Amino acid sequence: MQRPSPWRQLQPVLQAFFRTQPALMGWGAVLAVLTVLMGMGLLGLSGWFITATALAGLNPTTAILFDVFMPSAGIRLLALGRTLSRYGERLVTHDATLAVVAGLREQLFRGWAQPEAARQLLLRPARLLFRLTVDMDALEAVYLRLLVPLAAALGAVLLAAVVLGSLQWWWGVVLALWLLVTGALIVLWLARRAVVPAARRALATEALRAHTVDLLAGQTELAMVARLTAQCDLLAQADQRLARADDTLNRLEVTAGAAHSVVGTLTLVAVLLGVGALVGEGAIGAPAAALALLVALTVTEPFAALRRGALESGRTWLAVRRLAPRMQPVPEPAAAARCADNHDSAAAIALHGVTYAHPGTTLAVFNALSLHIAAGERVALVGASGAGKSTLLALVAGELQPQRGTLQAQPCSWLTQRTELFQDTLADNLRLAQPEATDARLSQVLQDAGLHADVQALTAGLQTPLGEGGLGLSGGQSRRLALARLLLRDVPLWLLDEPTEALDAATADDVLQRLSQHAHGRSLLIATHLRREAALADRLVCLQAGHIVADVHRGSAEFEAVLHTLRADG
Q: Which residue, 211, 205, 133, 160, is CA-closest to 44?
């Protein structure tokens, strides 16, 4: 497949910037141009004023008649205006950029919220974290370090051309062409040469961080398999790659800086010779010559910021290539799409000929699997580990997408084997299920889950901060919090994946009792190998190697026989 052109890849990012904050983006560029123009005007007017004042002081008559107030007022106005415009530029551009990046992060999340998303996150968490942080930060350079400095540089060239053109019109034209051509050539050369080392630097930085995290988090496991030295070697190699990339980029920056210095020097020398000739002919005075010289001295300064943007362009393009595919509008998640109006209202779950194989393998977990669960029915999936119980729940939840067949399901909540909690307040961990829930509603579900008394005993109550992964709660408390989150979301179907695994018998019995109490009127699909969890069900579906080998209902001898083959409590 042919890779899209860089421009087509960049389009979604630029559209996001200018669609989200068009007014702020425009004002940011305007303020950047004003800042540069006022800085050049301040220096030029100051030079003119100093020169004119010195010349006027040579003659008592001209000294008395010379107006010092208007130029002084102009200098003060430009100084204050430059300060205000600089502050406004930073405020407006960064506020707009942060707002756009926040929107892009949400868009990226939505792009990831597709089948296989959670599996990919578990397999390579560092990669997705880098996309969300480092790559998103790199996108800021598109506006802050490329578009805004470009506008400022063009404004500086225009002012210099006007000032020089007021002395000799063709001087302004030649100066503008000279600055535009040389500036563009240097920036384009730098951007082209910096693409590879900047991308290598970004990749080396990611590798360095990932290897460091692996070393710190897995040092016990690495030591047990005698891989600590090898991990340290990987860390050192990533550091060496980073150092080589930095060295290359530094050399490129020095070379481009020297080129801009040469351009600036040649510009200044040419203007000096030109105004010197005009002063010698008596066409202009020394103050006008000083003004022209100082404007020529400052006209190349804005190109320095553009140069820094060109140096980072490789990192920016790498981020664009990575993120652009996920910046396109995405449909609603698959689980929601299957809850269409034409869904069979009598069925909670309906699978017809579903086939699924994990990515990278041709061995199917399910091959033409069919299963019908009526609305309000409680069904337990039982079978040995690897039979496909959790995979079936993931298919119903929409986390996995079948390769063939049809699957319809009611809106559902999924209580996974692992309790997923985040470094946030207890209330915000609950509100993942219902963002608009009030504190009273949160207290109610905590009461229903049997955790309200524990939360009341905490100093901050619902606002108690949890550590990473829910640090601060015991295993039983974490499971009850997950149960409260399940209760908070009002859906007709619950998917329960070993809901009491690793809990002591007393806590497990209490959790199951509360689940049964609040499941009235709901459909349940439970993946389990424990007798106490399967006892919640009215129907047992036995899976073996991805096939249904038994389907029995409560009240039958087969039901009791299958139930007693499961692992006993405790």
A: 160
* Residue 126 CB coordination number (10 Å): 14
* DSSP SS3 for 460: coil
Q: What is the pLDDT of residue 429?
A: 93
Residue 4 confidence (pLDDT)? 59
Give the closest residue to 92 by CA, choosing from 103, 80, 104, 100: 100
DSSP 478-507: HHHHHHHHHHHS--SEEEEESTTTT--HHH
Residue type, 249: L
Give the 3-state DSSP-derived string for 346-358, with helices as H, strands as E and coil as C.
CEEEEEEEEEEEC
Per-residue confidence (pLDDT) for residue 484, from 0 to 100: 93
d(CA 306, CA 34): 16
The one-letter amino acid at 208: L
d(CA 495, CA 499): 9
Q: Identify the helix (H) or strand (E) that includes residue 336.
A: helix 334-337
Sheet with 364-374, strands from edge to edge, namely: 364-374, 347-357, 404-409
pLDDT of residue 332: 46
Say what the pLDDT of residue 333 is.
Answer: 41
> Who contacts 91 (Cβ-Cβ below 8 Å, separation ≥6)?
none
Closest of 491, 241, 466, 217 to residue 375, by C-alpha: 491
Within 13 Å of residue 558, how many CA atoms lie on the same side as its CB? 10
- Cβ atoms of 4 and 324 within 8 Å: the answer is yes
User: What parts of the chain have a pLDDT lower than 50?
Assistant: 1, 331-342
